[in-house]
Design brief:
The protein is mainly alpha-helical and 140 residues long. It has five helices and two strands. The mean pLDDT is 84.
Length: 140
Amino acid sequence: MTTSKSTWPVPTRCPVCGGGTVIERVRCDGCASAVEGRFTTGWVQQLSPEQLAFVRVFIACRGKIKDVEQALGLSYPTVVSRLDDVVEALGQAPGVPPPPAPPPPPRERGSPRRAQILDDLAAGLIDADEAAQRLKKARE
């Protein structure tokens, strides 16, 4: 069931005060099911519409500043300045590498023995059949 109503981009900033927005209802175009809650658009929400337009071009140009210059008709310093503005809007100082990604969560299920079997398999120390046999024995 596709609706014929026009859709608009999600406003990422309040038109009154400039604060961030929250999406409170999401509806499926196919079946009209709806989910209510407090949803965010993630990092996109931190950017102005102009910054989002710049990011779209930047991504379309695969991050090649020379191509962004040509696409937007801007000089190199202007492209770099706009990119720095986007980086700052995302809460990162330009030129400073972002913090490292958090480590992966610990394995939720299984014993240390299971983990060792899977590590041995990944390292090529045992083949898949041997790993399956060991995992089966470890479950017993």
